[in-house]
């Protein structure tokens, strides 16, 4: 009988620890582009199912997407069950497992290799990133563009993604204590 109580106590401690840790584990934000001009949750879910058919979660690869007016309204932010249930992402390669496990993926709809994101997308991306960074105490140095992560071999989020401007704007917004 004592063994059973010890086992139940251990299970209870682990359950409570996971309940407190799991939704609060976020340490990174990784920015992506869809590399296609059309996108919404359903479209990206279909692509995800084709490319990663063995992944057990029927959800998009990212935690959030930001529309470009083609598939969903320009600047609108959407998410599916990956964020709702605080599930791991599948938005970077296996070389960076931790960035999938503890990284929130944000995908800007559009091919930013060929064209710039819209102003509405940029403003939404900034607002969402600042909100997530503050909510989860994510350091600005842990907000990264997919292709700039060591071990990743991709052009994502594209050469037209304004990364220097984005980091500069983030820094201003994250260090401004009046904007809370």
Describe this structure in words.
The mean pLDDT is 86. The chain has six helices and five strands; from the N terminus they run H-E-H-E-E-H-H-E-H-E-H. It is an alpha/beta fold and 180 residues long. The protein is globular and about 65 Å long. It has a five-stranded mixed β-sheet with strand order 3-2-4-1-5. The protein has a single domain, classed as Lysozyme-like (3-Layer(aba) Sandwich), CATH 3.40.80.10.
Short description:
This protein is α/β, with parallel strands linked by helices and 180 residues long. It has helices spanning 2-21, 41-51, 81-84, 97-101, 119-136, 163-175; strands spanning 28-33, 64-66, 77-78, 103-108, 143-145.
Q: What's the topology here?
A:
Layout: H1 2-21, E1 28-33, H2 41-51, E2 64-66, E3 77-78, H3 81-84, H4 97-101, E4 103-108, H5 119-136, E5 143-145, H6 163-175
Parallel strand pairs: 1-4, 1-5, 2-4
Antiparallel strand pairs: 2-3
Helix pairs in contact: 5-6
Helix content: 25-40%
Mean pLDDT: 86
- Strand order, largest beta sheet: 3-2-4-1-5
**How many structural units, i.e. domains?**
1
Whole-Å distance between the termini? Answer: 53 Å
Based on CA inertia axes, which overall geometry fits? globular
Protein structure class: alpha/beta
At CATH level 2, the architecture is 3-Layer(aba) Sandwich
* Portion in strands: 5-15%
Q: Which fold does the CATH topology refer to?
A: Lysozyme-like
By CATH reckoning, the class would read Alpha Beta
Uncertain regions spanning at least 5 consecutive residues: none
**Count of helices?**
6
Order of helices and strands: HEHEEHHEHEH
Give a short account of the largest sheet.
5 strands, mixed
Would you identify the CATH H-level superfamily?
Peptidoglycan recognition protein-like
What is the number of beta strands? 5
Query: Over the alpha carbons, how many angstroms does the gyration radius reach?
Result: 18 Å
